[in-house]
């Protein structure tokens, strides 16, 4: 709605006051408690924003969740948004850390089986994907300045020159598209501007931490602005190697940079060009052994044939086997912060089988370039184009037995690149009472993952060669159908096509499995045998989906808005790249779909001193892609469409500034996530209707408080406390007891100082103050006899000095 509509709006609210005056207070209280509230027109939004800037209430946050700039409080979506100031106050360095304080959101900073430190699994409202493989799509979309990050590898973005992060809950299939079945995370960076400015921060801390982060904004000429940002971070690992040649794990060694250029050749044309890159050279992810079964098949082979001490290692009555380092048994279950993996192998073909020799490593290179053009073609029409290219190369390894033995080990070489083009047409009609956006999207992706797996002396290449294309068209419109009552409707059509080539799927050395009747035709296993179908085969799958949404919003007053919505989403199908014994074909799986019904409210109360937003929802989740170890199919984890689920819950977020010096935030999330049905494939793997969905804690709670203390002629001190709680989390699909993390609390505390001139400051903080030990992700390998996982970081202190101009 344009400014010209203000008079009409004010008259509407004046008439409404006659009716509402006597019961408005009761309405607001009831709305906050029972979740009665929804959207506004842009005229009211503009009026509110202007007034908000002039008082000391809660910060006004502008978001682009609906592809146009609008206030967070005017957006009829359950979403959280945190600005650069909020990130800095919490001491956040990567996107994954926002999951600790966002309702119904969970980030796994290192997914099972990966061993890469640059791979995260994002879950929103219990929906996500816990497998990083090239041929499986994520369940939550991650976007950097509107550019979709298509793979899990490379999605641990450094918080570098970030303006804000938006977390959208529920399917975002209309405007964001495929693979946003659980929601979307949108990272928006700062844009160059006309003022010379910059900042630099230096951080030290536990584990010999050193971090330097800085940026500078450079106005080059009228209408030509540039910015540079850089980030360097090193620290030692927090998982200790307990034997000779066992490296420390969980270290950090990252270098990142970003260059941005803004061109404004005219008042109606803006061109943004950016290039970013990052480089990490780290040891493998901090995976540790929780339990070891020495009676598992691969463990028995090692102890009886390769250990060098079979009489000791296979004698279960001999207690000395539990201290003899040649034996593979529970002596190596050293979780949470120790391991015995030496990253050595008995097979030279495995050690030198990939471009880089086997060693502890998590090396990732990421770079991307994008160009965004905004053209105000007419007073009522603007056109936006987003063109981008990104490339990720990586090398990482796992010593999965976490011992000097060679039971199960992996050596991965990864290359993936993507090109995308999106165009949007945005406009409005009838003096702004109708706004609309239509557009199209195209992406092309290719990848090559050489995943070399060593089981004792047997070696398999179990990777993927993937080509993919996606094409989509979308449209959405919001119309003011009555004063303060808005109707939004939209739809998206998507077509995905993926081709999987089995060139990286064969037996390198059959080893101790030579001659075993594992092939599909019953023949004995030999070197060079394919793992899925005859070598040289390729399989293509094509998916099409319509994902509509509709919402109705009503603004009861300038302070209170409610909405009800219906939305659909889908996550693309794919291929399983890990199989053993061999298959006669290339196994694939179908898309997931979800339908969500949501009712929410947004409110700014008490002269914007209190903000309370909330939503209740039901998600009907169909054709779930479950990663399971199905004993009827073999030993490797298989992705299958094997269940239906229903997820109900709510989110409630509060911000308050009762006085100018005190800031309080709190969040509450609840999930009731249940399988409604499971088929024989899930039942064979141990998933039943009584099984809990993984990464869907029933309760997520958080709270923080900060207080500004003036020190005359010196500056301002700001003590801050951040607390979060996650109830019980099931870290795998079958709810393995050892991988169940009971409810845990995290407590961070800091005190910041800012000098009177605001040019420099200091911040001293402690993360995980109470030394909470908690499991972030995990995996069970019955063939190798292993249960392994990644634990959260222990208590760490940090000291940051910053300067800005």
Question: Summary?
Answer:
The chain is built from eight helices and 45 strands. It has 805 residues and is mainly beta. The radius of gyration is 27 Å and the shape is globular.
- Dominant shape: globular
CATH architecture classification name? Beta Barrel
Total strand segments: 45
Q: Mind telling me the CATH superfamily name?
A: TonB-dependent receptor, beta-barrel domain
Q: Roughly what percent helix? A: under 10%
- Return the structural class: mainly beta
Q: Please indicate the count of domains.
A: 1
The CATH topology assignment is Maltoporin, Chain A
Percentage of residues in strands:
over 45%
Distance between the ends = 38 Å
Please, could you describe this protein's structure?
- With 805 residues, this protein is mainly beta.
- The chain has one domain (3-294, 329-804): Maltoporin, Chain A (Beta Barrel).
- The chain contains 8 helices and 45 strands.
- The protein has a 22-stranded antiparallel barrel. A 5-stranded mixed sheet has the order 3-8-9-6-7.
